[in-house]
Amino acid sequence: MSPSIIFRNLSGAEVKTLTSNNCRCDDWKRVKVLEGFDPSRCLNVIFSGDIKLGTLKGSYTDESGVTVKCGISNAHLHNCTAGSNVLISNIGDYIANYIVEDNVVIKNCGKIHTEGKSAFGNGTEIAVLNETGGRSVKIWDRLSAHEAYIIALYRHRNKAIAKIEKMVAGYSVSVTSDKGTIGSNSRILNCRNIRNVRLGSYSRLEGTMSLNEGSVNSCKDDPVFIGPGVIMDHFIVCSGSIITESTLIDKCFVGQGCVLGKHYSAENSLFFANCAGFHGEACSIFAGPYTVTHHKSTLLIAGIFSFMNAGSGSNQSNHMYKLGPIHQGIMERGSKTTSDSYLLWPARIGPFTLVMGRHYKNMDTSSLPFSYIIESNDESILVPGINLRSVGTIRDAQKWPKRDRRKDPVKIDQVNFNLLSPYTIRKMFEGRDLLRKIKSVAGGVSASYTYNNMMIKGPSLERGIALYQTGINKFLGNSLIKRLEKIQFRTDKDLQKRLEPDKSHGNGEWVDIAGLIAPQRVIERLLDNIESGKVNSLQKIEEEFRSMHRSYYDWEWIWACERIEQEAGRPVSKFTAADVIAMVENWKKSVIELDRMLYDDARKEFTLSSMTGFGIDGGEEIKKRDFELVRGEFESNSVVAAIQDHIKKKTILGDELIQRLKKII
């Protein structure tokens, strides 16, 4: 409510109308109103402390079409401002020390109050990853996954971390108040107790049990809904999120577009863009974008995840009964766990890895992405690179952008959805070279190899080397073609000029900081600038992350060019059209080879064995027909069609570039 709005004292006639409507106040002079105030719309109200009231005109129509006049009835307001066109009715205890903005509806609630001064969840310390607090993150209204990643995991940059924490402390002080706010157009229905909570515009609360010390950062474009039975303490919830169905939250940050429901329980955890948690439990987890857990018996504890799907009964151990819960786990982006999986922390699982079974030894597969880790007779079997040919991996990559629930025009997390990137391809280079080294150290071909408490079978190792090389060829070819598209070249010199990188920021190692993929040297430079004071506000840090995200494709070519030169054994300044044509042909072969593998993997879902359970009371023909009507035909399946279309498009794209380059020759 604007401070420029002028409130006046009640007139004698207005006081008379209020008292005749059974409204009470020890000192009517402390009640101020806007011009146009309608006293007839206050019934059975106790006013105490300093009160400001809007016009109370208009009406509210609910989802069932029932219309009720705006006004205040059967309520006790203490030190409150109630805006125009509000409906407040049937408050069992009172509303105290709150600013209720225009067009708000509050019905059938117990107590809504602010006690003392509150930062409304800002500055709350979350013991993420390490339950003993060694990696604690102080939350604030616009905490991004990337900022939290740096605070939790870059402890070696203690000066930069201290400065960021000081900024968060300053922000927390700036929002501290002895008055809570209920934003305009909010709806609070049938809620029991709300204490020291700030609600943004268009918040929807219905049947909530208890909210204590927090912020609900709702907005018109993307409202927040908090539903029946929810209990939350010391929290921040961002726009577009849904928390419902008796979910329990204690010391948590919930980012944009998240859904937590069906009795989910979480403490000391961070959830970022588009996470989903149902039935299970989270304790001290860093849930990066698109972390999903959907089953009653699933516990995620002391780990960092992103683009992750946890199978039923997934579990981890973060201590060995000696020095307490001090161990942590890292599951890099895109990893999955199957039903009843178990991991002993500390462990690090490489990107896009599938974990099956129970693993009782510490393991590190960070240099072997797209793998399977399988339990066999209490032994961990590693199958490197095999997930590259899994159609499920491609389906996941396709679905994530489509499942972005964020409608807020200001996205807090900068999410890169690319399956193949300098981050994952760097891992493939490491994996290829590591497998070659393992083979070399063993003295040549062997039936099996041992690596980091895991066993790799000989054929799996050979296939892993080949798969990684195919993935590398595909990515480098993609980058090369993207760099040369829509340009006519007359000479090799023109071609070489275009291939030369424009900048140098993309060189070196790339990292995935909870959804944002960027060169590590750029992250280190940001931390240097924070330490020096050049970047001196949370808003500037936000903009730095946005700038990194926007620069991804410019920097990607710089990195890819460096790798192309390494693979070719000479600089791009000496490339000819014939060299590039050879690379494009190799790229076409790799793309088609990978797509054929995906096609064959998809076909497994349409075999006779997959039809078991279909056509319950019929023969083979009925079974086949029932399967097709339920699951669809193989060739018309959306993922299969996308694979076939991808083969055609990439073939055309490669052939078109080859034809352009042949003009030079």
Description:
The termini are far apart. Strand 40 and strand 41 (379-383) form a beta hairpin. It is built from 13 helices and 45 strands. The longest helix is centred in the last third of the chain and has 27 residues, at 458-484. Among the domains are: 1-113, no CATH class; 409-574, no CATH class; 577-662.
Shape estimate: elongated
Unreliable segments (pLDDT under 50, ≥5 consecutive)?
A: none
Sheet with most strands: 28 strands, mixed
- Through-space gap between termini: 71 Å
Tally of contiguous helical segments: 13
**How many beta-strand segments?**
45
List keywords for this structure.
single chain; 665 residues; alpha/beta; 28-stranded mixed β-sheet; six-stranded mixed β-sheet; elongated
Question: How is the secondary structure organized here?
Answer:
Layout: E1 8-9, H1 12-20, E2 24-25, E3 31-33, E4 42-48, E5 51-53, E6 59-61, E7 67-69, E8 71-78, E9 81-82, E10 87-96, E11 98-100, E12 105-113, E13 125-126, E14 137-138, H2 145-153, H3 158-175, E15 180-182, E16 187-189, E17 193-199, E18 204-206, E19 210-216, E20 225-226, E21 231-237, E22 242-243, E23 248-254, E24 259-261, E25 265-271, E26 276-278, E27 281-283, E28 286-287, E29 292-293, E30 299-301, E31 303-305, E32 309-310, E33 315-317, E34 329-331, E35 336-337, E36 342-344, E37 347-349, E38 354-356, E39 358-359, E40 372-376, E41 379-383, H4 391-402, H5 422-441, E42 448-451, E43 454-457, H6 458-484, H7 492-499, E44 510-513, E45 516-519, H8 520-532, H9 538-550, H10 552-568, H11 577-603, H12 620-631, H13 638-662
Parallel strand pairs: 2-4, 3-5, 4-8, 5-9, 8-10, 9-11, 10-12, 11-15, 12-16, 12-17, 16-18, 17-19, 18-20, 19-21, 20-22, 21-23, 22-24, 23-25, 24-26, 25-27, 25-28, 26-29, 27-30, 28-31, 29-32, 31-34, 32-35, 33-36, 34-37, 35-38, 36-39, 38-40
Antiparallel strand pairs: 1-3, 6-7, 13-14, 40-41, 42-43, 44-45
Helix pairs in contact: 3-8, 5-6, 6-10, 6-11, 11-13
